[in-house]
Amino acid sequence: MSAGQPVDTGLTRSATFLVFSVLQTDSSMRAVRSVLSSVPDITKNISIRDTNANLTCVVGIGSRAWDSLMRLPRPAELHPFPEVRGAKQTAVSTPGDLLFHIRSERRDMCFELERQLIEKLGDTVQLEDQTVGFRYFDARDLLGFVDGTANPVGPSAISDVVMISEEDENSNATTVGGSYVVVQKYLHDLKAWKALSIEQQEAIIGRTKLDNIELEDADDGQQQSHKTLATIEDASGKEHAVLRDNMPFGSPSTSQYGTYFIAYSRHLWVVEKMMERMFLGNPRGLHDRILDFSTPITGSTFFAPSLSILKRLGD
Ligand code: HEM
Fold first, then answer.
1. How far apart are CA 282 and CA 160, in angstroms?
2. Residue among 204, 174, 199, 230 nearest 61 (CA)
3. According to the model, what pLDDT value does residue 92 have?
4. Among 78, 260, 306, which Cα is nearest to 180's?
5. ipTM above threshold 0.90
6. Cα of 116 from ligand 1 centre, angstroms
7. Is residue 178, in this structure, part of any structural domain at all?
8. Staple 81 to which of 50, 93, 162, 166, CB 3.0 to 4.6 Å?
9. What is the mean pLDDT of residues 218-226?
10. Which residues form the Dyp-type peroxidase N-terminal domain (predicted)?
């Protein structure tokens, strides 16, 4: 099995999310290929200055750029993020050919990696979004809840959820060891959220706020919590998880409070089904109440290939 990119490093104190469009010229594609292939080396070069800081970077490639950039067979499920139009909110689909998910315990390490990447990419790319996320106390989102609890734990459980293997239907030499990645940048209306009682907030999330204890699911046909809407099963009743590495971001002085959602999965349909249940509701019409207080302003899908594919891109 090909080694994956460092998807499973877990939540750090700091993270930077960079989404770019690539200029559609042969010379830009060539230059970008060379930069992407050197990401593991650039990261190693910086991380050696403080190995305890756990600096990592995962690279994702979007659907539009796949053919011209990668020149390899497409991952079977890869397509642009599909817009989901709900009654309250729309999960918007926004441009993105490249994703860099930079993580470290140290903000300066994330900064340095971003700086070197930007310098190398030069004018071959156009920035679509840059978000700097931070750990908020005991890994809470800005709604005040611990975020990431239901993630798989341990190398084999994580790779089972995120990594495409030879046994997967439609897998090929390009996709084995890789993962689909979905990102969405949400802004919260914290004033309205804080006007709710703690019990109302807990019912929306599906966990208690202080102790982070899971609440019972509502009866079928009733308004479901976020936790329940985001729990999905396939036709055989098997539950499918994803690996989330959400980070809070924002600036109190400009009243910007947000959550950067990022999910890795071996199957793209799993994330898309979660999204549909949240935005359209289950049953239809009873959407995720988190969306009454959270507006997505970006939405993009990528494929993070295995390390060996990434390194060979510059050949
Ligand atoms: C669970 C927050 C968006 C998928 C949770 C939990 C919180 C949370 C606090 C409970 C603790 C945990 O297990 O992590 C948020 C916030 C979001 C957001 C603030 C953005 C406004 C999303 C989206 C998806 C998603 C867009 C998927 C498309 C999940 C899943 C779980 C979860 C799979 C675990 C469910 C389980 O218990 O099995 N989220 N979330 N979340 N969320 Fe979200």
1. 27
2. 174
3. 98
4. 78
5. yes
6. 32
7. yes
8. 93
9. 97
10. 9-135
